[in-house]
Amino acid sequence: MNGVIAGISYRSLLGRRRVWLLVLLPVVLLALAVLLRVIGADGERATVTLLQTFAIGTMLPLLGVIAGTGVIAPEIDDGTVIHLLSKPISRPVVAQTKFLVAASVVAAFAAVPTFAAAYLLVGLESGVASGFALAALVGGVAYAAVFMLLGVVTRHAVTIGIIYAVIWEGVVGNFVPGARRYSVQQWAQTVADQVSSSVFLTTDIGIGFAVSALVIVVVGAVFWAGRRLRSFSLTGDE
């Protein structure tokens, strides 16, 4: 990891309008949790449903799109990445640093609010809060890697990322049984299921497969992004 690149990336990601989108989604999650608490629908079933459908199913992939594409895609679009790549820094190191920045941002804006929302509703009951917080953490890391890679390989990363998050993760991954094995959010929920003893949380993917898939996706995406950056010439052409 390169500290200079990391600092620039954090300032770029958190100093633009993206930061308001990063904040908005967790605020909506916490607001929904407060609403459920106020109306008395704060049981374990309602909590698991909220965390599955909104925290992991909606908020997490969208945060991944915002942070993952935000650390690299704007620099490629405006040409400033050429200045970065002209420095004597290994391009895989650039990719790894960008990934770590995106992953840490997603983790902060996803895992912490997810734990807080669950704790507000059911406390530490059945390990729901810790299970889903861990799911948000590992799922967020995977999304950060995938969407950072997308930001490197295409100039339409945000559009493609949103389509992927909404259609594949939100619809296909939830309602098509065979597709669940290839859904990041389903892998993340499997991790949550291992930590939580809630009877309202069940998954049909083995933990061994889920963890292996998460590791392969993260390592593969970061490696591919580093290789892809090597194809950029200092004139901005590939």
From TrEMBL:
It comes from the Bacteria. One of its GO terms (cellular component) is plasma membrane. One of its GO terms (molecular function) is ABC-type transporter activity. Pfam families: ABC2_membrane_4. The chain crosses the membrane at residues 19-39, 51-73, 99-122, 128-150, 157-176, 205-225. Keywords: Membrane, Transmembrane, Transmembrane helix. This is ABC transporter permease. It comes from Planobispora longispora.
